[in-house]
Amino acid sequence: MEHIIFCVVVWSIVFILIPFSRVKELGVVILVSIVWMIFVDNISTLLGYYNYHNLILPVGTTSLFHLIALSGVGILMVNWLKENSFSKLLAVFTVGLSFSILQGIYVRTGAFSYGKFDVMLGFVHSIAALSIFLWLSLGIVGEEKVYSGHKSRIRAIA
Predict the structure, then answer these.
(1) Whether the predicted model's global pTM rises above the 0.85 cut
(2) What tens digit of pLDDT does each residue of 56-65 get?
């Protein structure tokens, strides 16, 4: 159930903040995110780093709803990137920290448990995975498409 709630919250935020045309424009990021997270979560689970529990509609070792939520996180992460390195570092560290908080919530609700990892290793793992995700997204979607376009429904953010 936690994965469904996370999915609904993330995609609500996406559609409140980002115009639908921009979501469609960055649609490949959704695919990159899902494929990358299936790979990362399955390898990490098989290596005993962590485990997801209470899976509804499992895809390998994670929930379909968790993967869909992470694709929304990917859109949020990539949407406001700028060409400078600080923008990318800020996105990676903000999302990495958010994942650590989410993992803490998931641990308390019984939806996630650490194996060989702890909170700190989980954070470092997230930073590495998110850095590769960002690199893949920029390479596959194209930097020009990511850096341009109407990025927000709210003028102050754009």
Answers:
(1) yes
(2) 899 989 899 9
Instruction: Determine the Cα–Cα distance for residues 15 and 156; give it in Å rounded to an integer.
Output: 16
CB 112 within 8 A of CB 61: no
**What are the helix (H) ranges across the chain?**
2-17, 20-25, 27-46, 64-79, 85-109, 119-141, 143-147
CA angle 23, 27, 15 (to 5 degrees): 25
Question: Regarding beta strands 58-59 and 62-63, do their DSSP bridges make them parallel or antiparallel, or are they unpaired?
Answer: antiparallel
Q: Is 118 left (phi over 0), alpha (psi -120 to 50) or beta?
A: beta
How many Cα atoms are found within 13 Å in the side-chain-facing hemisphere of 39? 10
Task: Report the C-alpha gap between 48 and 31 in whole angstroms.
Answer: 26
Please state, in angstroms and as integers, the Cα–Cα distance from residue 8 to each residue in 60, 115, 142, following that order: 21, 27, 28
Q: Can you give the residue ranges of every domain in the chain?
A: 2-11+21-55+66-147
Residue 2 near residue 65 (C-beta atoms within 8 A): no
DSSP secondary structure letters along 76-112: HHHHT--SSHHHHHHHHHHHHHHHHHHHHHHHHHTSE
